[in-house]
Amino acid sequence: MSPHTRRMVVKNGGWPTWGSDNVIFFHRKDDPIIHPPGQKFPKDVFWGVYRVEISTCIVKRVTPLNIDGFTPVAIDPNRVVVVTVREESQGLGAARVVDQFRQIEIFDSRNGNSTKITQNTKSSKADHFNPFLIDGGKLIGYHRGRSDKLSFDQAVERPFQTLDSSLPDVGLFRVSGVFPTISKDGKRLAFVDNEFKAVWVADSNGLHIAYEEDGPDRLFSPVWNQRDDTLYVCVGPSFNMKMKVNINAITNVSKYRRQCYALTDQYNNAFPSSSPDGKKLVYRSTGKDGFKNLYIMEDSKRGVVNGREPRRLTKGKWTDTHCQWSPNGDWIVFSSTRDKPAGAPESDQGLDPGYFAVYLVKWDNPDVLVRVMTSGSDISGHVNHPCFSPDGRSIVVTADLAGVSVDPISLPLFEHSVRSYGDIFSIDLPEDHLVRYQDGNYQYGKHIRDVKKFTRITHSKYEYSTATWTKFATQDPNRAWSMRLPAGDFTPACPYKQRDGGESYHMTGHLLLPKRCC
């Protein structure tokens, strides 16, 4: 359609569905409501389903003011199928009554009457998602999922899954957790369980817990030291930059003489990465000014505690995060919002608004900065969690470069997933990362060297979590943990039970590796 022939019908609307040539139903998250006299609702903001007539642009709310309604599918100009949540629950994992689950209902916009569908089935105590019509509207289909938690050890102690890869020379598989990391020699794999409560290690001794958190804190983003038997892990509240998060070192991981101690003692610190010689760490921290920037820990054993200070690498009123040291030690790759356009919103429905791009910076000279990948300077995209290939010639990212075709409200809720970031992509770096002077010295300053070509590795409407890369192939005898790859069919490990035919959901970490030994 030509831009000259289109016009705005509704501002702030999503998930449109045609009721007729003149009627569209849609959903949106409302502004805080004004409580009617004598009534007090349990919260101030609700999702609602609306009906708009295109010819007049008259908008009418279809679902009641005091319930959540979303992801509509129209039956005809007056009736629409909606997912509802009629009562607010106490949060993920809490016991719920029927009206606190996601249910399927039919609403009539003429009189406001509703017909409850899934509340009257045997699986009423389950969440129901994204209704659709079958046979010209005679039947309603939907997805269903249970959310009864299993213990984390039952969820993790399962085989890993081999996936098809779109890269001819690179294999792909996933583990039953998040934030996978492989030691430089390829012999040890570590990751965090879906509850963010334990660091698991798979090696020649099998699958075992290297560190467990019994208190309220969470664990995330483990990474191996590139020279010795040490793991670094972030300890603290997840996704809360106002709270203190420490980076801890777990030593002698494979020798079972483990000791754990903090390398930081103030601010919110996360996403450490070891230098190739293992002596330094790069990480992101809120620091004294409260903005997430990158810092260098000059001594990875002593840390920055008891008054020791790191060296600041980047500085600005933006977010620099998800950093990793390059294999040759020259570069640090990271994602940043430093190019977020003026006037961009501070948040998107209370969530991170995005505008992330990927940059390279010289570890010893912050003046040398190159942007290598972005989802667009004028859109609120995410290009996050960059990770170098072992040869340093490619980067894998979790990004929405192929678009995210659904609203986050339509997806299963996880305690540790902020929003749907998209899929895993790989990009090949150009040989000349920097513009140089003729005499060979680096030309300082930020340069735009955006890579336009990328390869999509996964296909999903939900975040595929972080990826990592190793040069050791599946058949390599040093990789004893690869024995956990199944020979036949695979049922994904998940902290949520599958009952009543319900489909369960989980987060997984992905690993890229050569299909053949190097």
Q: Would you write up a description of this structure?
A:
- The longest helix has 5 residues, at 152-156.
- Strand 13 and strand 14 (189-192) form a beta hairpin.
- The strands form nine sheets. The chain has a five-stranded mixed sheet with strand order 25-26-27-28-32, with no helix packed on it.
- It has one helix and 35 strands.
- With 518 residues, it is mainly β.
- It has one helix at residues 152-156; strands at 14-20, 23-29, 47-53, 58-61, 68-74, 79-85, 103-108, 114-116, 127-134, 139-145, 161-163, 170-175, 178-182, 189-192, 198-203, 206-212, 218-224, 231-236, 246-251, 259-262, 269-274, 281-285, 293-297, 311-312, 320-325, 331-336, 357-362, 365-374, 383-388, 394-399, 423-428, 445-448, 455-456, 467-469, 509-514.
- The chain is globular, with a radius of gyration of 25 Å.
SSE blueprint:
Blueprint: E1 14-20, E2 23-29, E3 47-53, E4 58-61, E5 68-74, E6 79-85, E7 103-108, E8 114-116, E9 127-134, E10 139-145, H1 152-156, E11 161-163, E12 170-175, E13 178-182, E14 189-192, E15 198-203, E16 206-212, E17 218-224, E18 231-236, E19 246-251, E20 259-262, E21 269-274, E22 281-285, E23 293-297, E24 311-312, E25 320-325, E26 331-336, E27 357-362, E28 365-374, E29 383-388, E30 394-399, E31 423-428, E32 445-448, E33 455-456, E34 467-469, E35 509-514
Parallel strand pairs: 28-32, 34-35
Antiparallel strand pairs: 1-2, 2-3, 3-4, 5-6, 6-7, 7-8, 9-10, 11-12, 12-35, 13-14, 14-15, 15-16, 17-18, 18-19, 19-20, 21-22, 22-23, 23-24, 25-26, 26-27, 27-28, 29-30, 30-31, 31-33
